[in-house]
């Protein structure tokens, strides 16, 4: 925004690395040179408030300064002052007003570039990655709840699996609040039995969130004799925020091999009934495990454990590279009676549909070879092949 308005000679930028405690000497030195200060920060006006307090304490030595930011309405979010990401347009708008500059002419090259880029973007649904274990976990939960037939529902938590609220997770999550809330909410619902509430409640939580914020809810549930099914979706890494390690990971933050802490060991110690399985390896078994857990009473703890497909792809040794492949002779597309279950319902992004040929096909560049689709095609048209044996690499 500064460059676009050609204000490089008039504006200094102070980028704060640590906002608490604020670097007061540095900020005071900058305030001494400034007449106008614009705060470019997301969410709440935290830095803005801190700097104003600092200024008030030293105003006599700093001279007059005008402040612009969230509190003055000069910096806003797309859906309100504290909501949404910062972008160039917001800063351009604020600087244009402060410096009384016409911004539409300056903004046009940026707008043109944005329009050009948007033409190149392929429209995509927000979806679990190719081979993501959460797809199988939510499919198993959905099938088991339907088999159970008591209008059971899922309460979610914060992580990749929050997408379980949308089509990629078969719209299973019905409530999603803050970290650690899923198991707490499920515990609360289970206490409503005395008011006639009798729907099964399933809480899903990822491994990272479980260790970070789920433990108090688990202990509270055990202590208060909760009646619910808690499912930990353990993919061994904090995938949503960039594959940071957590206590379920096989290596430490400095990369040393370590023994992962098993969520079920903790749950067992508070008396929960435990089931652990890979959600993809045998999808029928996964459905059965959730269904069986739904039929029991008390605190039930099921762990769906399988590493994050995207992280594994980045780190695994390439001894065997599996890809799914569809036999066009066996696949009969729209008329197969399965409504193209693979591409329409399961909707792994690697499975695509050729409308002209009326056949599904797999994008082998992106397929992770998890094998879930192989188990679900009613025509047995899909198989896994080891492309290493074909002399190819991923
Ligand atoms: S094996 Fe099937 S479900 Fe798994 S990543 Fe490949 S196409 Fe997707
Ligand atoms: S691959 Fe199987 S599930 Fe997919 S469209 Fe063909 S027959 Fe149907």
Question: Mind explaining what this structure looks like?
Answer:
The chain is of the alpha/beta class. It has 3 domains: about 25-120, no CATH class; about 135-315, Rossmann fold, CATH 3.40.50; about 315-385, Alpha-Beta Plaits (2-Layer Sandwich). Helices cover about 35% and strands about 15% of the residues. The protein has 13 helices and 12 strands. The protein has helices at about 25-35, 45-55, 60, 90-100, 105-120, 135-150, 180-190, 205-225, 265-270, 285-295, 310-315, 340-345, 370-375, and strands at about 35-40, 65-70, 155, 175, 200-205, 230-235, 275, 300-305, 320-325, 350-355, 360, 380-385. The protein has a 6-stranded parallel beta sheet with strand order 4-3-5-6-8-7, with helices on both faces. The chain has a two-stranded parallel sheet with strand order 1-2. A two-stranded antiparallel sheet has the order 9-12. Helix 6 crosses helix 10 (about 285-295). It is globular and about 75 Å long. The structure holds iron/sulfur cluster (2 copies).
């Amino acid at each position: 925004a500064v460059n676009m308005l050609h204000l490089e000679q008039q504006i200094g930028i102070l980028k704060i690395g640590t906002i608490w405690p604020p670097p007061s000497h540095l900020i005071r030195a900058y305030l001494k040179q400034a007449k106008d200060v614009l705060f470019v920060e997301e969410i709440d006006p935290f830095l803005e408030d801190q700097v104003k307090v600092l200024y008030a304490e030293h105003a006599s030595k700093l001279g007059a300064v005008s402040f612009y930011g969230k509190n003055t309405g000069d910096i806003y979010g797309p859906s309100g002052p504290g909501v949404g990401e910062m972008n160039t347009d917001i800063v351009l708008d604020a600087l244009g007003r402060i410096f009384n500059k016409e911004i539409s002419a300056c903004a046009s090259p940026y707008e043109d570039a944005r329009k050009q880029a948007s033409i190149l973007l392929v429209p995509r649904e927000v979806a679990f990655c190719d081979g993501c274990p959460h797809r199988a976990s939510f499919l198993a939960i959905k099938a088991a709840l339907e088999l159970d037939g008591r209008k059971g529902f899922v309460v979610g938590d914060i992580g990749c699996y929050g997408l379980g609220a949308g089509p990629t997770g078969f719209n299973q999550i019905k409530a999603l609040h803050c970290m650690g809330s899923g198991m707490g909410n499920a515990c609360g619902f289970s206490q409503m039995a005395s008011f006639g509430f009798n729907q099964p409640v399933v809480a899903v939580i990822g491994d990272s969130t479980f260790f970070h914020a789920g433990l108090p809810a688990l202990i509270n549930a055990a202590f208060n004799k909760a009646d619910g099914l808690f499912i930990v979706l353990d993919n061994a890494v904090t995938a949503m925020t960039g594959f940071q390690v957590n206590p379920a990971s096989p290596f430490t933050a400095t990369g040393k091999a370590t023994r992962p802490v098993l969520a079920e060991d903790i749950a067992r110690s508070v008396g929960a009934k435990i089931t652990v399985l890979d959600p993809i390896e045998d999808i029928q078994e996964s459905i059965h495990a959730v269904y069986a857990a739904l039929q029991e009473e008390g605190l039930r703890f099921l762990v769906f454990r399988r590493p994050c497909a995207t992280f594994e792809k980045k780190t695994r040794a390439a001894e065997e590279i599996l890809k799914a492949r569809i036999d066009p002779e066996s696949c009969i597309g729209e008329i197969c009676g399965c409504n193209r279950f693979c591409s329409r319902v399961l909707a792994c992004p690697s499975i695509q549909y050729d409308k002209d040929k009326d056949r599904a096909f797999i994008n082998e560049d992106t397929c992770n070879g998890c094998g879930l689709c192989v188990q679900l095609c009613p025509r047995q048209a899909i198989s896994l092949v080891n492309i290493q044996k074909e002399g190819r690499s991923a």
